[in-house]
Amino acid sequence: MTHGAAKHGQEAFRKIAEEGTILRTEVGSGAHGIAIEGTDDRDEMGICIEPAGYVIGLKEGEGGVAFGQYAARTQPEHQRSGPGDLDVVVYSLRKWMKLALGGNPSVLIPLFVPTESVVSIREYGLHLREQADRIISRRAGYQFLGYLNNQRESMIGLRKPKVNRPELIAQYGFDVKYASHAVRLGYQGIELMETGRLTLPMPLGERQFVREIKRGRYAKDDVLAGINELGGRLEQAIENTGLPEEPDWDWANQFLIDAYQSAWEVAW
């Protein structure tokens, strides 16, 4: 594997990630159950506790970069991943927690994957998964809705896409991956607002529908209508959710203190 972008893929950061990981799981299409054999790569996400010197000391990576995450991938930087490739990102626990409390859809996935999708786990990684309800709030619903809208806008050309897939547009008339992501986010956002949990892999009927979109089995207008309908349902689910307005910030703060102190005591 190659390291990720220079500031995130430094050798020193790789060592921090490997030695300090408390949780690492499969994420992406494999975790959602919507991967199509021969077309999708494998994505993994980890959470690690970095050494004290990088948090309360003066240690930095090359170029004065603070440690926030480590990234590695099979393909070189700026080259799209393909079948059989592996993309890995390992966040510092502090960075991951901030993103999770804010409701970022991608970073929430390790909380809900089944045990067979867990690559490695330690005590505090187990605690995170056991107390996911303290992290989830109405904030997450707004994030899922925002991501859904971003994917829809990229699909129909209202937003400059982060990833260009001209071969899909040539074959199907639109980017079916952006479309499938929008539909997935709609289903999952609704479930999260209604239950406080995510079912992973996605329920059979939902994931089959998403896979069929990825295969180009539905016309653009039909998919767009489905996305709009899911977006409306998600807005209603956010309004009616029984989840708290905010995550448990006090718990999260104490969790970070306990986890870092515990890790550093062992290291010392």
Summarize the structure.
This protein is an alpha+beta fold. It has helices at 11-20, 28-32, 93-101, 105-108, 123-130, 138-156, 166-172, 176-195, 204-214, 220-240, 249-267, and strands at 2-3, 21-27, 42-48, 69-73, 86-92, 118-121. Helix 6 packs antiparallel against helix 10.
Question: Descriptors for this entry?
Answer:
268 residues, Beta Polymerase, domain 2, 2 domains, six-stranded mixed β-sheet, globular
Q: Describe the biggest sheet?
A: 6 strands, mixed
Strand content: 5-15%
The Cα radius of gyration reads 19 Å
Q: Looking across the biggest beta sheet, what order are the strands in?
A: 1-4-5-3-2-6
Order of helices and strands: EHEHEEEHHEHHHHHHH
The CATH architecture of the largest domain can be named as 2-Layer Sandwich
The 3D shape can be described as: globular
Low-confidence stretches: none
Q: What fold name stands as the CATH topology of the largest domain? A: Beta Polymerase, domain 2
- CATH class of the largest domain, anyone? Alpha Beta
Helix content: 40-55%
**What value does the average pLDDT take?**
93
Could you walk me through the main structural features you see in this protein, from its secondary elements to its overall organization?
The chain is α+β, with helices and mostly antiparallel strands and 268 residues long. It has two domains: 2-135 and 248-267, 2-Layer Sandwich (Beta Polymerase, domain 2); 138-240, no CATH class. It has eleven helices and six strands. Strands 1-4-5-3-2-6 form a six-stranded mixed sheet. Helix 6 (138-156) runs antiparallel to helix 8 and helix 8 (176-195) packs parallel to helix 10 (220-240). It is globular, with a radius of gyration of 19 Å. The mean pLDDT is 93.
